[in-house]
Amino acid sequence: MINDGVPLPPTVYRLAKGRVWAMLAGSLAFVALGVVFLVAHSTVQMFVAGVLAVPFFGLCAVIIAQRLFRDRPELVLDDAGVDHVSLGRLGWDEIAAVRIREHRVRHTTHRFIELVLHDPGAYLARAPKLVRRTAAMNVRLGFGPANMATNTLSVPPEAVLDAMRRHRPGLAVLD
Fold first, then answer.
1. What gap in Å lies between CA 94 and CA 11, rounded to an integer?
2. What is the pTM of this model?
3. Could you report the per-residue pLDDT of 15-32, keeping only the tens digit for each?
4. 104-to-94, 100, 138, 153 alpha-carbon distances in Å
5. Which residues contact 116 (CB under 8 A, 6 or more apart)?
6. CA triple 130-112-122, angle to 5 deg
7. Is residue 29 a contact partner of residue 58, using CB atoms and an 8 Å limit?
């Protein structure tokens, strides 16, 4: 928002490196466990678990390592819109509302920020490939296509919503 004729400086959120290093360690531990299952393969289930674990968690480790060593902010908010490392750039005029959502998996709750879009199809037509691939799964789970994970940010999602409202007063925040 322009304050007294002066635009607000961008709000920049960097990667929470401690959390992401822990995620990398966890991925590598599961790769190692998968290798143990492949080598031991005393049962068919262990062998199958190893075959599935090594490539999946290996890919996770590669993606996490790339994020750790890249010198790019996770999220930038400015008066024009949102620039997210995974979602790309979205203008405020594309965003109808925002809300904090939760997804429970067993005993863990994952919190994220959902960007409710005016025209999800237009966004998906230009969205990064990974977003397009996960959008269908998100819709099946009852979420929109543009979701920002908050576990890699150093602030809680409420702080991000506050910053969004500073840059875009009148932005609808849903419950």
1. 19
2. 0.76
3. 888 888 998 999 999 999
4. 28, 13, 14, 19
5. 95, 96, 97, 98, 99, 144, 172, 174
6. 45
7. no
